[in-house]
Amino acid sequence: MKFGVNTLLWTAGFDRSHLELLPRLKEQGFDGVEIATFRFDGFPAQDIRRALDDCGLERTFCSALTGELSLVSDDAKIRQRALDFVRQGIETAAELGASVMVGPYCAPVGQLLGRRRTADEWSRAVEGLRSLGETLDACRVTLAVEPLNRFETYFLNTAADAVALCEEVGHPRVGVLFDTFHANIEEKDIAAACRSLGRHLKHVHACENDRGIPGSGHVEWPAVFAALGALGYDGWLVIESFGFGIPEIAAAACIWRDLAPSPEAIAFDGLRFLRQQASLGAQASA
Ligand code: LER
Ligand code: MN
User: Fold this and answer.
1) What is the per-residue pLDDT across 244-271, written as a single tens digit (0 to 9) for each?
2) How many other CB atoms sit within 10 Å of the CB of residue 247?
3) pTM of whole model > 0.90?
4) Where along the chain do its domains lie?
């Protein structure tokens, strides 16, 4: 398993001005960094790639559908815009040297329509994700689609639905991002939900139940690591939380207070805790 941290802890749009963060993350023992941005035009992928290479850091790539962008809209123009956006994201991930692009890519974050999803919307999601297969193959990128909790999306909330979606899409480069924060809200048993993803599990966001320091809340980490061990998961475990003072992030993720003494505490104390849990898990199964 490889350990990373998502840059949304520090900024809503990673760019050249944030490169000084990278050596610090390397120094703290991260294997890689999850670079997050919601705008691909003008995104300095080459420069960031070089800076990551110089530090000996690997990378994953994170974005999301926001605003009006939706793969499931009944408006073909909106669907096309969402597809173009995700395609550009996949190409950007490849340019950055990332082999996985993660996030919610069916309906936009925060869109709640006062009703459950329809069968037509589901079909549009399947069709849209399937149509990305060629780009994913050409770029050698895997798309890990993230179920979110019910307060952030009405469309995809559970591991069971995410498995059903991947089965219907039927492309090996379309899989699931499992986020322990969302699972803590939606699943009866976080570890069982994680295990149920089987071969579709392509990425993990390690988040405490309050988005604070992993290990400081009530997520049952030993059970989560046992589930990952049972799956033979050897992908990324990325600490995700959100900067406390960044208006765009606060509004999207509902961050209305400091979740820890500092973003660094979430990243660095969280990494120490998660590595310790992973090695305890490995000893238990030896
Ligand atoms: C949003 O709640 C989340 O978990 C992020 O990974 C979405 O980009
Ligand atoms: Mn997440």
Assistant:
1) 888 888 888 999 999 999 999 999 999 9
2) 10
3) yes
4) 2-285
Catalytic site residue from 121, 152, 187, 240: 240
Q: Is the shortest distance between the CB of 274 and ligand 1 below 6 Å?
A: no
Tell the CATH topology of 2-285. TIM Barrel (3.20.20)
Measure 134 CA to ligand 2 centroid, in angstroms: 25
Q: How far apart are CA 161 and CA 158, in angstroms?
A: 5
What are 53's two structure tokens?
Answer: 């290479």
Dihedral pair phi/psi, residue 193, rounded to 5°: -65, -45
Query: 208: Cβ below 6 Å to ligand 1?
Result: no
Q: Could you tell me if 145 and 158 are in contact, meaning their C-beta atoms sit under 8 angstroms apart?
A: no
Q: What is the pLDDT of residues 19-33, one digit of tens each?
A: 999 999 999 999 999
- Among 6, 7, 146, 246, the mutation site with the greatest number of ligand 1 atoms within 8 A of its Cβ is 146
